[in-house]
Write a structure and sequence with these properties.
The chain is built from six helices and six strands; from the N terminus they run ββαβαβααβαβα. The protein is of the alpha/beta class. The strands form two sheets. It has a four-stranded parallel sheet with strand order 3-4-5-6, with helices on both faces. The longest helix has 16 residues. The N and C termini lie far apart (41 Å).
């Protein structure tokens, strides 16, 4: 079931660098516009669905940038994009496969990963992908928190469980 529309998956494509936009431009905009922040502030990254994929992948890739990572109902590999976008998946696979797989990114940076958590609803179309990522991380002894709750790939689930990310981030000692 495709949801239609297009998306960036926060990967460089279509001659735009969406990854740099999140990792550099958004972070700089926060520092420039919120008085209580600076370059020394802890940064956390979280997202849901495609944004969860972006948060997990970018957090694992840019380990020096983020103090913790969280994702909700996350795509875990670029090969799942067809579930949500109409664009040709080939646009998203310009990078090496290890650059587009959350697991491969976490594995390649496993010794430097910030605290990581993710969750998924038991009725979510991505539940098996999230379970697979969880089991892969266990097999490689990569520390993380994984939780499943009642719910599907929808706003009521995310509105309820975003609190988990905020509490997780609040408990990070950096």
């Amino acid at each position: 079931m495709a949801y239609g529309g297009d998306g960036s998956a926060y990967l460089p494509h279509n001659s735009k660098n969406f990854e740099n936009w999140i990792v550099e431009d958004v972070n700089n905009a926060i520092i420039e516009n919120i008085d209580c922040t600076s370059t020394k502030s802890n940064l956390f990254i979280s997202g849901l669905s495609m944004g969860g994929y972006g948060a997990l992948r970018l957090g694992a890739k840019h380990t020096e940038t983020y103090s913790a990572i969280s994702g909700h109902s996350s795509i875990t590999d670029i090969t799942q994009m067809h579930l949500f976008v109409e664009e040709d998946e080939a646009l998203y696979t310009e990078k090496e496969q290890t650059e587009t797989s959350v697991f491969d990114m976490m594995l390649s940076n496993k010794n430097n990963l910030p605290p990581t958590r993710f969750d998924c609803g038991k009725d979510d179309l991505l539940i098996e992908h999230n379970r697979k990522l969880h089991n892969q991380l266990i097999a490689q002894k990569i520390p993380h928190v994984y939780e499943e709750f009642e719910g599907a790939h929808e706003w009521p689930y995310w509105q309820e469980h975003i609190k988990k990310s905020l509490l997780f981030f609040n408990n990070i000692n950096t």
